[in-house]
Amino acid sequence: MQSLHRKWQILIAVALGTVVVPINAGIVNVSLPSITESFNVTVATSEWVITSYLILMLSLVLFFGRVGDSKGHERLYLVGLACFLFSSILCSLSPSISFLIIFRALQGIAAAMMISVSMGIVKKSFPTEELGKSLGIYAVAIAAGLALGPAIGGLIDYFGGWRTIFLINIPLCALSLSLCYFILNRNKGESAKLDLGGTIFQFICIFLVVYGLNHVQKSGIDLMALIMGIAAFAMFLLFIWNERSVKNPLLNLSLFKKIKFTAFNIALFLNYLCMYMVFFIMPFYLQKVLHLNSSVTGLVLTAAPLIMMFLAPMSGYLSDKFGSRYLAFAGSLISAIALFSMTQLTIFSNFGDVIWRFGLLGVGAAFFQAPNNRAIMANAPDEQPGMVSSIIVTMRNLGMVFAVSIAGLLLYTTIAPSTLQSPVLFNLAAYDFTTGMHRVVMLGGIISIIMALLSLAGLKKEKLDLNYIKNKVDNLVSD
Prior knowledge:
Layout (H helix, E strand, L loop, with lengths): L3 H15 L1 H19 L4 H4 L1 H24 L1 H20 L4 H29 L5 H30 L8 H15 L12 H24 L3 H23 L13 H31 L4 H29 L2 H17 L9 H28 L6 H27 L5 H4 L6 H29 L10 H13 L1
Helix pairs in contact: 1-6, 1-7, 1-8, 2-4, 2-7, 2-11, 4-5, 4-6, 4-9, 4-15, 5-6, 5-8, 7-12, 9-10, 9-15, 11-12, 11-14, 11-15, 11-17, 12-14, 13-14, 13-17, 15-17
């Protein structure tokens, strides 16, 4: 048991370091137009600056979770922090887009080391009766990172250029590394066999799918795209076979035999798919079509995460009182309304037209995500909380990875890559871009409706007890 002050020191030190992971998931979005222009490349190429980070983090989070069990969570976290700091310096010094993509991939590996064990470190540091409070504070740190990323990126890019956005990681990582070095007990974990086969199959499958989508953006559906699609499907089948065969799999497939568990996980994936498609395409719309600067763009992109940060604790509290299903259903519908409303944005829209729609999207996400995550945990075995937490992280990052590729693919159906390389767009080019954006948000709205339907999975097997809900409301009012 940790001492009274030590446990809070650990929480602060770990949260301070871990916050750079969500910050760097969003900080580049605002600067992507600047990076595209700086290196004179297409959007399909520059989007790999985002995708390489997310792919590596997604592919290795389960693997490093097992490494942490074997080598020690605290040891792995410290190595991840040091690697993240070093890779951030390399990103800021990148001489070409290829080097920037490689260094961002290194950042993704470091992020996977940190995010896979950080929650476990917090759990070990607090007694059971304070676990909810500590994990709640940890969750606020993650939400704050998502909220601050676009704003910080926009301001720094506006005043110092895109290379300086990576330097924000240096003081945060250095401070957290110093604190963790002196505070954390670097104990070795229990010996655990690593599922290298599953890790390799998972990585190749995800890489082939995303690279294939990127190839289709550039060249359309051709023989190479079909070959990559077949190869990705083969890797997926090999991954399933491997997970069924090995003694200690990366992913326990038996968890997905429960309909509700599977449905809520798919809904979580779709939610992040919708959100990140919008976060990817909006900086281009705001800067190239509406001609707003990067600092204003960052402010707009901050609206949704900020609202999520403040409303998520309330939605979590309400889900404890009334259950998760109907809150997740309502959140999905609010998200759908927000996304469909974005089809009304034009080349003549202004700052206010965009920001209230982003705020509404944040309300929908807040009322969906916390209840949905609670439902996933509630429908999983008590003896596998670590595995379930890793699945949640994987679904979240998987949605982000596919969002970038799908949004780029839809955008290229209306505007040529060469046209999109212009610093600003006017007249017909701006109209063509806006049409592509409308297709992206329309798809997001349809997906949100699918999320709402998934929230009702297994409902016919349950008895809808309106008196139960009425009694809960009466008790809440009386309290």
